Amino acid sequence: MPNAHQGSFPVYRAERFGEVICTLGESPVWDPSSDTVTWVDSALSKVHQIHIASGAVKAFEFPLSISAIAQASEGQFVASTNRGFATITIQEDDPRISFGIGPQLATGWRMNDGACDRQGRYWSGSMAPDTSAPDGWATMFSLEGPRGVMERGGRYRTQNGLAWSSSGRTMYVSDSHRTNPHVMAYDFDCDSGEVSNGRLFADQTGLLGGRPDGAAMDADDCYWIAASDTGRLLRLTPEGKVDAAIELDVPNPTNLCFLGPNLDTVFITTLKPGGTGPGGNIYIAKIPHQGQIAPLFAGASQLEFPNTELGLRLPDDICANPKPAE
Fold first, then answer.
1. Is there a binding annotation on residue 110?
2. Where does substrate bind (predicted)?
């Protein structure tokens, strides 16, 4: 049940889950076959995985900075990194990262938020080292097999919030840069991946109240967005109206995924500003809405990544003692 109402919509309360603390938690992915959520700490080049029922945690460290992931198969993920697109595997004794397929990024640039469309293409936007610089505008890329990397265009300072409607014919993407935080909706051609007819869906001065970060779609085609700086996630209807929210006790939620047999539990990552402020924990919230499982990346077996480096499975005592799910 909701803890409160604001205006005409309910507000649900998220509770801390486990003891893992990240500097910049991002990009959670639930695997129903193993009941695990995998997510990244992009500030520390780490990948975390938690078993929801037991609370057991694993952590891995990689030589590349990883900002987002999507699942390809059990234990394998496609990733956005400071060396372009990559794949990572987190098998128990053999974590590794393969990269070098592109796009080629200038010094200091990296990929940012990423997600798969309904056809299994992986999308991610580039990001400048100084997003406020005159030449700090970035663009969107996709990765698919066997075509490889494709530049898709767009103009973003800090690309985030990628999600697609159930039909796949509407794509949402946010720009969370402080100068003009907003969410755009686009018509999306499922066959070609072409994007057209961009229109404003929501902005900070209107519905959001904060900077729009990571996002996910639910079964009603409502767009859940982490409204950074507000301590809330907002549910936006296809018409762009807020009809529910989830409230946290820290100001900077970053991303979310749905989990559980009914997909009515929300797993939330957060930011610890400057590595010292409140935040960085993970959170769980129960809601009366059904989510969707994120699409899998479909092209891993058709692509060649020329470079591979080993990662490191971190000792269990580095992972904080977890709290099992109730």
1. yes
2. 110, 112, 130
Q: What is the mean pLDDT of residues 193-208?
A: 89
Name 39's bridge partners: 48
pLDDT-derived band at 92 (thresholds 50, 70, 90) equals confident
Chain position carrying tokens 């809405």: 289
d(CA 34, CA 142): 28
Give the Cα separation of 85 and 281 in Å (integer): 27
| Beta-carbon-side half-sphere exposure of residue 211 (alpha carbons within 13 Å) | 18
Give the CATH number of domain 4-130+139-309; options: 3.40.50.720, 3.40.1080.10, 2.120.10.30, 3.50.50.60: 2.120.10.30
pLDDT tier for residue 319 given thresholds of 50, 70 and 90:
low
User: How far is residue 7 from each of residues 13, 155, 242, measured CA to CA in Å?
Assistant: 16, 35, 10
SS3 string of 12-51?
Answer: EECEECCCCCCCEEEEEEEECCCCEEEEEECCCCEEEEEE
Q: What is the pLDDT of residue 148?
A: 97
Encoded tokens for 200: 């404003």
pLDDT of amino acid 325? 43
220 is in an annotated binding site: no
In this predicted model, what pLDDT tens digit does every residue of 118-157 receive, in sequence order?
A: 999 999 999 999 999 999 999 999 999 999 999 999 999 9
Three-state secondary-structure class, residue 21: coil
Q: Is 316 annotated as a binding residue?
A: no
Which residue in the list 41, 117, 175, 213 is annotated as catalytic? 213
* Whole-angstrom distance, CA of residue 224 vs CA of residue 233: 7
Token pair in block for residue 90: 């987190």
Q: CA–CA separation, 175 vs 155, rounded Å?
A: 9
- Please indicate whether residue 187 is annotated as part of the active site: no
Q: What is the DSSP letter of 206?
A: I
Q: Domain segments of the chain: what residues?
A: 4-130+139-309
* Residue 189, annotated as binding a ligand: no
Task: Give residue 71's Cα distance to chain centre.
Answer: 12
